[in-house]
Design a protein that fits this description.
Shape: elongated
Distance between the termini: 78 Å
Oligomer: single chain
CATH topology of the largest domain: Jelly Rolls
Radius of gyration: 28 Å
Strand order of the largest sheet: 9-11-16-13-14
Number of helices: 0
Low-confidence stretches: 1-24, 33-37
Structural class: mainly beta
CATH class of the largest domain: Mainly Beta
Order of helices and strands: EEEEEEEEEEEEEEEEEEEEEEEEEE
Strand content: over 45%
Largest sheet: 5 strands, mixed
Helix content: under 10%
Number of strands: 26
CATH architecture of the largest domain: Sandwich
Number of domains: 3
Mean pLDDT: 85
Length: about 300
């Protein structure tokens, strides 16, 4: 941190000695007023004197910030501080290095802080093509952050985004199927001009379970967009019935989708007035592996359930 006096006419040059260890690192530069209120202007230059970036603020509570700027080369940089909008006075200048990208694994939770409205934090994980992942980001620490995030592939291209500006904010990407294998990045960001702490959880959908004729299974739907899959081997002409009943508490209204080996729906069921959903006496159109997808109906929230599969 450096203090000084900036003139409205002659810029005050600060040689910072920023010997960047790697071109990919990012810096935050911020100048704020002290003793006398005045506007701020900062300029970042490389060792040759070429201007790379500027920032200024003429508001009464002035603070000029250059946020998350990615240094193009390794070397020494110069920050030039000056008064903006024909002002002069004291200032405080700080330089901060963005922390390295965090690692997050399936089934784990990471926490962090979005320090200002243009800030972000990256979390990296390895995924395989076809995996269905869920990302949940929530406020942490009783602050006003409105969670938002981007999911990026290994090339940096954005695959999906999620955000929530409500007072009980939580941003969720539910059961997204990864289009390729590789390293993916979750960029946690502030939504709706907010800042503060957050907690982010990454999970992967478990592999479908097997069920046989005459068998039963139990499970839990965690949220409205969630589902669970069960596989069984059927023969063309089999007459099958499927029953899903809400178990225990919760407000789950069960939905069922019976799918063939290609993923096409054979029959579905769901009723907004019952906790006992059935597909009755359906004739299988072909032989192969069929999927029973248990899901929510009518936008209901999650809960526990029991599943029964029978053949007539």
């Amino acid at each position: 941190m450096r203090r000084g006096v900036a003139s409205a006419c002659a810029a005050f040059a600060v040689v910072t000695g920023l010997a960047a260890q790697e071109p990919q690192r990012e810096e935050n530069f911020k100048a704020t007023g002290s003793r006398r209120a005045h506007a701020h202007w900062i300029e970042l230059r490389d060792a040759s004197g070429q201007s790379l970036k500027t920032a200024s603020d003429c508001s009464p509570a002035a603070s000029a910030m250059l946020a998350n700027y990615r240094l193009p080369t390794t070397g020494t940089y110069v920050i030039r501080a000056s008064g903006a909008c024909d002002t002069s006075g004291g200032y405080t200048l700080s330089v901060a290095l963005k922390p390295p990208t965090k690692e997050i694994a399936y089934g784990s939770t990471a926490s962090g802080t979005i320090a200002f409205e243009d800030d972000y934090e990256d979390l990296r994980f390895s995924g395989q093509k076809g995996e269905a992942i869920t990302i949940l980001m929530v406020q942490s620490g009783g602050n006003s952050l409105r969670p938002a995030f981007e999911l990026k592939d290994s090339s940096g291209s954005t695959l999906k985004t999620a955000s929530d500006c409500s007072s009980s904010a939580s941003a969720r990407l539910a059961n997204y199927v990864l289009p390729s294998s590789g390293v993916f990045t979750i960029r946690a960001e502030p939504g709706c001009s907010s800042k503060g702490g957050y907690s982010l959880t990454l999970s992967v959908k478990a592999a479908p379970l097997a069920i046989a004729y005459g068998g039963s299974a139990t499970g839990t739907i965690r949220f409205t967009e969630d589902y669970e899959d069960f596989l069984f081997n059927g023969q063309a002409g089999d007459i099958v019935s499927i029953r899903v009943v809400r178990a225990g508490g919760g407000s789950l209204l069960p939905g069922i989708d019976l799918r063939d080996s290609s993923g096409s729906s054979v029959k579905s069921a769901g009723d907004c007035s019952t906790t006992d959903t059935r597909i009755q006496s359906v004739k299988l159109p072909s032989s192969g592996i069929f999927t029973i997808r248990v899901q929510t109906a009518c936008g209901s929230s999650g809960g526990a359930y029991s599943l029964l599969l029978s053949r007539s």
